[in-house]
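My main concern about presentation is that the manuscript never shows what a single data entry looks like. For the editor and my fellow referees, an illustration may be useful. For illustration, here is how one protein appears when written out as sequence plus structure tokens:

***
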Amino acid sequence: MKTHIGVDDKRGLIRSIEIKAANVHDIAPANKLLHGEEQRVLGDALWE
């Protein structure tokens, strides 16, 4: 299992959480973690 967390980087507040199986690519839950008002997005997976 992996936990993906959407965090407000200015306030440090968790905005969203997605838990997926370990074999699901890290980019898969991205749309569910984003709320649409982001000015920047940081991650550690390749976007291809």
User: Anything to note?
Assistant: The first helix runs from residue 30 to 33. Strands lie at 2-8, 13-20.
